[in-house]
Amino acid sequence: MELNKQSDWVARSLRSVWHPCTQMQHHETVPLIPVSRGKGAWLYDHEGRRYLDAISSWWVNLFGHANPRINAALKDQLDTLEHAMLAGFTHEPVIELSEKLSALTGHVLGHSFYASDGASAVEIALKMSFHSWRNNGHADKQEFVCLKGSYHGETIGALAVTDVALFKDAYGPLLRASQTVMSPDWRLAPEDGSADERAQAQARRAAADVERLFIERGDKIAAIIIEPLVQCATGMAMHDPLYLQLVRALCDQHQVHLILDEIAVGCGRTGTFFACEQAGVWPDFLCLSKGISGGYLPLSLVMTRDEIYQAFYSSDVTRGFLHSHSYTGNPLACRAALATLQIFEEDDVLNTNRVKAERLTKALQPLAQHEQVRNFRQRGMIWAFDAIDAPKDFSRRFFATATEHELLMRPIGSTVYMMPPYILSDEEIDGLAANTLAVFNKVMAG
């Protein structure tokens, strides 16, 4: 009976659902996996097979599927208030969440504007930057700067500051041009020196490229947008915190806003709650989404400074930030986020993650030292390595082979990465490492 249900779900989905970031024809050879339920770090199909969610379901599920504490918070909220428009109204969950997030920045970023997804948060930050400059008498500051290989979303504005050809090329005629500067990815550094020396040398080279552009066009540039510490979608390109320090100083010097896209790298993923904390700097705009709701409900937000907020504060309606989403500040999503923050506090998650990260890094050493692996790297709860001479269709073959070993993994090109939930047991950590090695060997052997 379950087999029939499994086959039926696949057939119905292929007929009616257009799946994201997917060439649908590929599912003729790589079948969909119909998920029936989730529990902890695992997803289960209708035939009872299980898959360790080693990528947190696109980097969102921090504390496992069907987490009892987040479940309880949402059940309680359902009996109180499921939704109310945030224009002209407010409610306790959105107020409390905004206050808690502000406190986590030492109240440097004291104002939060809400949306539903990461790309929308990026759009908001871009618009806020441009509009605040205009309100302050700098209407010529209309350009944006992004990093080579950067990814910030697939809506029109976010795509304009994305530099991944696969996503961007088809829609080029629709996009506003942006400036692109060198990536601080340490893999691009000269080979001489230690890993730390190489990373810092590349950080300085990349920051010098930003300085060159700011000198040339600073009076036209509204903001630079950066995914701090790890450029995720381009293949987990990691950089030294020094880069953020140097760019923050350049932004101050040349009057350019700094937007940090922490949609994937925030909420503890890189080892601190906000990635930028490791550089000791705060941006003018900070975008959050993905893990902020624990992977439960769509939620995103932009945090910003009081001086940005004050640029819009006026009796003149046209000076206001006229942007909205129907589900802005949804009470259920905010309550999920509050439950997520509570788990961080109660379980000392950041310190616990350091112990888990050390164990998984040690367990992955056979891969780190593998003759067909280069650039093994780790930052917080992110691991990645690049396959040498990877076979054609490496990513799809790895995904399919991983499912045979009870793993959900989706390499980016020839880069294999892990971004697991924060709740893995020692047994699950060891199993993840051993099975990843087995999958890699099988795929590379053809």
From TrEMBL:
Keyword Transferase tagged = yes
Give the positions of the site Participates in the substrate recognition with KAPA and in a stacking interaction with the adenine ring of SAM.
C21
Q: What is the annotated localization of this protein? A: Cytoplasm
Q: In which pathway does it act?
A: Cofactor biosynthesis; biotin biosynthesis; 7,8-diaminononanoate from 8-amino-7-oxononanoate (SAM route): step 1/1
Give yes or no: UniProt keyword Cell wall biogenesis/degradation. no
Q: What does this protein do?
A: Catalyzes the transfer of the alpha-amino group from S-adenosyl-L-methionine (SAM) to 7-keto-8-aminopelargonic acid (KAPA) to form 7,8-diaminopelargonic acid (DAPA). It is the only aminotransferase known to utilize SAM as an amino donor.
Q: What protein am I looking at?
A: Adenosylmethionine-8-amino-7-oxononanoate aminotransferase
Instruction: Give the species.
Output: Duganella flavida
Q: In the record, what lineage is assigned to the organism producing the protein? A: Bacteria, Pseudomonadati, Pseudomonadota, Betaproteobacteria, Burkholderiales
